[in-house]
Amino acid sequence: MKTTKRKIFATLTLVAWFLFFLAACGAEKKEVADKCKGASPPAACAQDCSVGVVGTCPAGFHCEPTKAGDYVGKCSTSCSPNGKECGDDATCSVEGRCHKSSLVFKILDFPGTKWVFLILALVMPLASILTWMERRQSAMMQDRLGPNRANIGPIKLKGILHFVADAVKMIFKEDFIPANVHKGLYALAPILAIAPVFIAFSIIPFGPTIYPHSVTDVIDPVALMQAPASDSFRDSIRMQMFQIDFGLIFYFAVLTLANYGGTIAGWASYNKWALLGGLRSSSQMMSYEVAMGLSLMGAFLIVGSLEPGFIVTHGASTSMSASHPLNWLWLWQPLGLVLFFTAAIAETKRAPFDIPEGEPEIIGYFVEYSGLRWGLFFLAEFIEIVFISAVVATVFLGGWQVPFLDADGFRFGGEMQEVKNAAGLVIGKVSVGGWFAPLPHAVVVALQFAAFGLKVVLLCWFQLMIRWTLPRFRADQLMNLGWKLLLPLSLANVMVTALIYLLFM
Predict the structure, then answer these.
(1) Is the peptide bond before 352 cis (omega within 30 degrees of 0)?
(2) Of 198, 390, 385, 378, nearest to 308 (Cα)?
(3) Contact, 224 vs 410, CB < 8 A?
(4) 184-212 residue pLDDT tens
(5) Which residues, 6 or more positions from 505, have their beta carbon under 8 angstroms from its beta carbon?
(6) Which of the 8 DSSP states describes residue 120?
(7) From CA 71, how far away is CA 331, in angstroms rounded?
(8) Are 102 and 24 contacting, i.e. CB atoms less than 8 angstroms apart?
(9) CA–CA separation, 60 vs 82, rounded Å?
(10) Mean pLDDT of the region 59-69
């Protein structure tokens, strides 16, 4: 009887979701009488136009083909921006068409939806795979076999199932809590270690803006810049959850909270070795965060913004396309890239900066943790690797940009051309001319998504190489590196960049 009720409930749930999807995907275009066919049509209705060409009709009009498939037609309009022709359930576009807002596109553009997609599609799978990659790579470097025993029947996949076995083990392992710990802070510390990293991903632009109604078309960059609210570009989905001018400052503010995770874990464990590890963690984080913040000031001076999405879409100079590799900040801020990457690796508390987790010294802020709580500390470390790679790729390596791939396709040897609005004011620049290979919007988006993922994976691999190549620093060496080398170089980088900017830019 219970099984039958569950089946009925599951069936009704699926039917409800199907009906919801049909309602959400309902007609987006609302049919409204054409004003040009009324008793007193506007004068613009007699004007000839070219279908699909911007500017052949006045504002508030669109080009309606004379016959289906024609490229010529007459200007037409159904509504006005301030009129009530569309009713309460639709809006009037800049081209004079009534459109209902689609619930599906609103859901897809909702920040929570994009965050879930980014975490589940890229961050968590990559962080999990990294646990296997690290053991496999270290085995190759040390001439060992590495993980190769975990299997599901005859399936072994070169030991890749080990991270699945680790996850199952941590979930079902006994969660032992020592008697004298501060239970509230003891439980809070693993959450503080992992939650801020997830939140910080909200500033990362992990792909270009998607225009659902133009996925099969070749995007016209000039039309996009002149009329971003036109019918072809409406319901756009920006692949970034949180866009604000102080984006990178938000990153520092949130990631600072993660430092409390290790410090509180050491203090709440009521263990002198754990406390020593927590103190090491807090001193290391404070030492390297100063240099890490200053290392990005040079990029801010050049680009003029701390918003990651702006850095990706504009690059260092307006004289080159944002997709040109020489316009990415790795060339304009090489010292800043090295300083930031070094300080960021120290922030992850991994070798050679892993003195807070000095295993040979029986020191570590999580020595009293077991089971899933220890697993959260372990997973947070690898998620930080992914996040640092995403930040470096975004700020210094062009983010989701593919070399020489503009919004309309590949272009080599082009030049930047000013774009003006209807009032004759310059609103931006686009790349034109040169050798051009047009591509549909869907292909461009797919290539740019793949480029971002590839850059992140390669930077993660590079961090693993460092982890298994360099020996651990002593505590005094680590402090000297942060305060006596990275900090002075970061200050010098800011001053030299400012001087060059004032003299030559």
Answers:
(1) yes
(2) 390
(3) no
(4) 999 999 999 999 999 999 999 999 999 99
(5) 302
(6) I
(7) 45
(8) yes
(9) 11
(10) 72
Residue 218 near residue 439 (C-beta atoms within 8 A): yes
Contact 467, 134 (CB under 8 A): yes
Instruction: For residue 157, count other CB atoms closer than 10 A to its CB.
Output: 13
- Please write the tens of the pLDDT for every residue from 389-448: 999 999 999 999 999 999 999 999 889 999 988 778 888 999 998 999 999 999 999 999
What are the tens digits of pLDDT across the range 131-185? 999 999 899 888 998 888 888 888 888 888 988 898 898 889 988 999 999 999 9
Q: Quick one: pLDDT at residue 103?
A: 80
Q: How many other C-beta atoms can be found within 10 angstroms of the C-beta atom of residue 25?
A: 12
Torsion of CA 293, 295, 301, 307, to 10 degrees: -50
What does the angle CA 241 – CA 322 – CA 462 come to, to the nearest 5 degrees?
A: 70
Question: Scanning the structure block, which residue is given the tokens 């599901």?
Answer: 152
Distance (Å, whole) CA 26 – CA 29: 9
How is the chain split among helix, strand and coil, in percent rounded to 5? 55, 10, 35
Tokens for 153, please give them.
């029947």
What does DSSP say about strands 62-65 and 405-406: parallel, antiparallel, or unpaired? unpaired
Q: Report the C-alpha gap between 425 and 418 in whole angstroms.
A: 10
Residue 409 pairs in a beta bridge with 406, 438
Amino acid at 245: D
Structure token digits, residue 285: 């984080």
State whether residue 500 is helix, strand or coil.
Answer: helix
